[in-house]
Design brief:
Layout (H helix, E strand, L loop, with lengths): L2 H24 L7 H17 L23 E3 L8 E3 L2 H15 L5 E8 L2 E8 L2 E7 L5 E3 L2 H5 L14 E8 L2 H13 L8 H9 L4 H5 L4 E7 L6 H10 L9 E4 L1 H14 L7 E8 L2 H7 L9 E5 L4 E13 L4 E13 L2 E7 L3 H7 L2 E2 L2 E5 L7 E5 L9 E2 L13 E2 L7 E3 L5 H12 L11 H9 L14 H5 L6 H13 L5 H7 L7 H10 L3 H6 L2 H5 L6 H12 L1 H12 L19 E5 L7 H10 L3 E3 L8 E4 L5 H9 L2 E3 L1 H8 L1
Bound molecules: zinc ion.
Zinc ion (ZN) binds next to loops.
Length: about 650
């Protein structure tokens, strides 16, 4: 191919990829399969490799690139990013409305209500339709140049369909399930967890190495564009046409009563969103009206933020005890006087570590404010010091492990105190329990109480021993009858054939969470391949860093671990990928599930599809072969019908798997 042809082809591929990025990341309506997308992408990469002089910064291949930065450059904002006046209660909200009405001399105002996403405010600048600079809000006047990192966010267009100069502002956020996943991984990796999605998003945007940012699936909602339109809503709708992601829940509200209704609705409905919001933003819709109202020295007069109260409660710490995790980490836990919080009864709160307790000056018998964010374990926000009586007791970290008595150790520079005794029964129990959890080998009927009994009775010393258990062993234990013992034996036997990624995760390798386990399972067919894997080879897998590679290779080279895995293999546990499995009746077929299933959970159904050679997917496209509609199917059903995709019932799906 000569240069002119290559240039044409490259331009065509980039256009196609931009188009599909927009459909996938902004509209959530992919038109092609991931495999076809990868093909386009690889074709572009190859061409650019042969013609490096044709690579431009707005190529989709350049989203993650460049060397880590030494520091951030400072950017001066074209117009300052002001913060909004907070209306904390109903009265202040009515006050805001009164001031606006007086300022404009009208009885009723058209407002636009928006969800206040709990993320990081950023500005994107486009010159002649090309993304040139992205910056943080900073102090409002100067921000940090984080262009490299923002480019990794696929819902941010690198090129616009029009060659215009434009500035847009938005909120970068981490979706809630990604936040939970990230914290799970950090827990596995013994790294400190993020307190909330905002901190996680801010940390990712302010990374000096864009490769790290790229591993965090950040997203954005644009809430402002400097376009010459009559109303704020018009300018947002136009921004949408230009390819930006605008929140779908933005609503025009005529008069303050409608604003109040909107606020009331989202106060409870926010629990169902896939991202965290901490309030509502109210703006005057008409841009000429906005201009007329102008600004105070700190904030616009035409906008206000209504903040929701955080989900908090006050209670008393009755005791502080430490827990020993399966990695030996010692975590202090506050035992609370039970209190209702966001719909559940809370009895415990994590205190993270020794430094955290000192920093917050938390003592036994203190009155404290506890806070819960979604599914995360509640935490103690602060002590109500006015309520102290002088009888509070300072907590001291124990010197020895409360379980095995071994001396505890806190490495210099680390926050976590550890029990280093590998034979510590708390760690052994933790490892066995981890192996049995739903996300791992999913062994039903084997929970904390039973693992505790089994280890204490010396019936089980490690995970391989589980498969040697016999019914008569269990019958010796308290609380066991013929039937309950048989149930345990059956569920252990059923766990022998779990997908390979779940097996890897179940081994409890340090730094290997569910995500890393699935990356490994995609790359390696069996545990034998992993025995051979060298650190350098592992590092080449995208998403696996040097620390993880080191931990994996060390785990599989240790004699004891190899022995344990051999024992599992001998017991009949599958230690390889499903590819080698028998019939593959769903081979090459793509399935999308919508609505509730009767005989299994959605993750189980997706695992079943995978194990039979098919691909589960979360969104419907023309490439979908079957949409399985359960009870109360969602919008995916309508989409399937529109695209002419075959829709089947759960029963029909089960027939296909036979
Ligand atoms: Zn111990």
């Amino acid at each position: 191919m000569d240069k002119a042809d290559a240039k044409k082809k490259i331009e065509k591929l980039r256009k196609e990829i931009h188009h599909h990025d927009h459909h996938y990341y902004v509209l959530d309506k992919p038109e092609i399969t991931d495999a076809d997308y990868d093909k386009l992408f690889r074709e572009l990469q190859d061409l650019e490799k042969h013609h490096p002089d044709l690579v431009t910064p707005d190529s989709p291949t350049q989203r993650v690139g460049g060397e880590p930065l030494k520091s951030f450059k400072t950017v001066t904002h074209k117009t300052p990013l002001l913060s909004l006046d907070n209306a904390m209660n109903e009265e202040e909200l009515l006050d805001f409305d009164r001031r606006v009405r007086e300022g404009l001399g009208r009885e009723k105002i058209e407002y636009i209500c928006e969800l206040k996403i709990d993320g990081l405010a950023i500005t994107l600048t486009y010159k002649k339709g090309k993304f040139v600079v992205g910056s943080t809000r900073g102090d409002g006047v100067h921000g940090e140049d984080v262009t490299h990192n923002l480019k990794t966010i696929k819902s941010i267009p690198l090129v616009l369909p029009e060659e215009i100069d434009l500035e847009v502002r938005g909120e970068v956020y981490l979706p809630y399930d990604e936040f939970v996943k990230l914290n799970e991984e950090r827990e596995e990796a013994d790294e400190p967890k993020f307190a909330n999605p905002r901190n996680a998003a801010a940390g990712a945007v302010r990374q000096l190495d864009p490769k790290i940012t790229a591993t965090r699936p950040l997203d954005i909602f644009v809430y402002y564009a400097d376009l010459p339109h009559e109303t704020h809503l018009d300018s947002l709708n136009y921004a949408k046409k230009l390819g930006f992601k605008v929140n779908p829940n933005i609503k025009p509200c005529y008069g303050i009563e409608e604003v109040q209704k909107y606020i009331k609705h989202w106060e409870t409905a926010r629990e169902k969103l896939k991202y965290e919001i901490d309030g509502i933003v109210i703006k005057v819709n008409n841009l000429a009206d906005q201009k007329k109202l102008g600004f105070t020295s700190r904030a616009p007069r035409w906008a206000a933020a209504f903040k929701y109260p955080p989900m908090q409660a006050v209670t008393i710490i009755e005791d502080i005890q430490v827990q020993v995790g399966r990695t030996g980490a010692i975590t202090p836990v506050a035992h609370l006087k039970p209190v209702h919080l966001a719909g559940v009864m809370v009895k415990r709160a994590t205190l993270h570590n020794e430094d955290e307790i000192k920093r917050k000056d938390i003592r036994i018998h203190d009155h404290v404010i506890v806070q819960r964010a979604g599914e995360v374990i509640p935490e103690v926000v602060k002590v109500v010091k006015e309520k102290r009586t002088g009888h509070e007791k300072t907590f001291h970290m124990p010197k020895t492990c409360p379980v095995c008595g071994a001396e505890l150790y806190r490495p210099e520079g680390e926050a976590i105190t550890r029990c280093m005794n590998a034979a510590c029964s708390a760690q052994i129990k933790g490892n066995i329990l981890h192996f049995c959890t739903r996300q791992a080998m999913d062994i039903e009927h084997v929970g904390y109480a039973l693992v505790d009994q089994l280890v204490e009775a010396k019936l089980v010393k490690n995970i391989a021993d589980l498969y040697k258990l016999e019914k008569k062993d269990l019958l010796k234990l308290e609380r066991f009858a013929e039937k309950s013992a048989q149930n345990v034996i059956d569920s252990i036997a059923q766990s022998k054939d779990r997908p390979f990624d779940r097996f890897i995760y179940a081994l409890g390798i340090r730094l290997v969470g569910r995500h890393v386990a699935s990356l490994l399972a995609r790359q390696y067919d069996s545990v034998d391949d992993l025995f051979e894997a060298k650190t350098g080879e592992l590092e080449k897998i995208q998403g696996i860093g040097p620390k993880v590679a080191e931990a994996v290779s060390r785990f599989f080279s240790e004699k004891e671990n190899r022995h344990l895995i051999e024992e599992l293999r001998k017991a009949g546990v599958r230690v390889k990928a499903e590819k080698a499995r028998g019939p593959q009746p769903l081979k090459g077929k793509t399935f999308v599930f919508t609505g509730g299933l009767e005989t299994m959970t959605r993750p189980e159904a997706e695992d079943l599809v995978r194990s039979l050679g098919g691909h589960p997917s979360s969104s419907v496209s023309k490439e979908t072969d079957y949409v399985v509609a359960g009870t109360e199917p969602g919008s995916k059903l309508a989409k399937a019908k529109k695209l002419g995709v075959t829709v089947i019932s759960e029963k029909e799906f089960l027939k296909l798997t036979k």
